[in-house]
Amino acid sequence: MWKISVLLLLFSFTSATAALAVCTSSGCPTGGIWTEWAVTGSSNCSASCGSCASLYYTRRCVSQRAGCNCTGDTSRYIPCNTNVCTYPSQKSCCSPYLPMVINGSYICGPIPTDKSSATTSCCPTGGLLSDWSVYGRNDANTQWIRTRECLTADLGCSCTGDLIESVTACPCSATMNNIPGGTCDTANYQTEYFTNIVVNDTKCEATLQIQATNYINTVNNYKVIYCNHDGNYTTYGTPILLFQIAPNETRASTCAFDRPFDCGTVASTAASHPTLPVSFTCDLSSNTWQYDYNGWHVTGYNQPQLLYT
Ligand SMILES: *[C@@H]1O[C@H](CO)[C@@H](O)[C@H](O)[C@H]1NC(C)=O
Ligand SMILES: *[C@@H]1O[C@H](CO)[C@@H](O)[C@H](O)[C@H]1NC(C)=O
Ligand SMILES: *[C@@H]1O[C@H](CO)[C@@H](O)[C@H](O)[C@H]1NC(C)=O
Ligand SMILES: *[C@@H]1O[C@H](CO)[C@@H](O)[C@H](O)[C@H]1NC(C)=O
Ligand SMILES: *[C@@H]1O[C@H](CO)[C@@H](O)[C@H](O)[C@H]1NC(C)=O
Ligand SMILES: *[C@@H]1O[C@H](CO)[C@@H](O)[C@H](O)[C@H]1NC(C)=O
Question: Which interval of the chain is the signal sequence (predicted)?
Answer without folding.
Answer: 1-19
